[in-house]
Amino acid sequence: SVAAQCGGAMVAASITLALAKDGELSYGFPKFADDAEFKTKFLTEFLGAALLCMSVLHACTVPRKSGGNGYFGFAVGFSVAVSIVAFGDISGGCFNPAVALLQAFSASPSALEIGCYWSAPFVAAIAAAFGFWMVVEDEDGSDESLPGQRGEERKGCCSR
Predict the structure, then answer these.
(1) In this structure, how many other beta carbons lie within 10 angstroms of the beta carbon of residue 99?
(2) Contact, 103 vs 25, CB < 8 A?
(3) With CB atoms 3.0 to 4.6 Å apart as the test, which of 71, 103, 105, 152 could cross-link to 13 if both were Cys?
(4) How far apart (Å, rounded) are the C-alpha atoms in residues 33 and 70?
């Protein structure tokens, strides 16, 4: 849940700051690049979060195609790693609003950064959910390949 992630991020940030020398961190939390425009930073956060959302949706929520798989953790983790490598130098590579809470514990939190880190993932999640809904057939069990619920009308955008 959102509350659990935010609580965990705040506890982790507090512990890290307590263990850090001089109470200030020079690494470990996202930071905007100084030489990029805001729209570029927002776009990179959007793309990274969308890739993360799509990998979770495709690898973890489609039991007919990927049920009982053992690769979902690799797919999700690799999407985060690829996004951090590709976009980390531009936007900081946050891709999760709970991680943005670390900015509040920094010496100089930026409202622009926190706003981007909170808004881009929400927009990306909506876009990813819509894209997933458009591409993936319904997983409601009404297909003949799944037991039960045969003969019922299919629902959603991919109805036949």
Answers:
(1) 20
(2) no
(3) 105
(4) 36
Q: How many residues does the chain have?
A: 160
How far does the chain reach from its first CA to its final CA, in angstroms?
34
Report pLDDT for 6. Answer: 83
136: which residues sit within 8 A by CB, 6+ positions away? 57, 58, 62, 158
Structure tokens belonging to residue 59: 């690898």
Distance CA 89, CA 22 (A): 26
The residue with greater pLDDT, 157 or 7, is 7
Q: Dihedral sign for Cα 64, 66, 70, 76, please.
A: negative
Among 26, 36, 46, which Cα is nearest to 106's?
26
What pLDDT, on a 0 to 100 scale, did the predictor assign at position 150? 46
- pTM value is 0.72
Which residues, including other chains, have CB under 8 Å from residue 74's CB and lie 6 or more apart? Answer: none
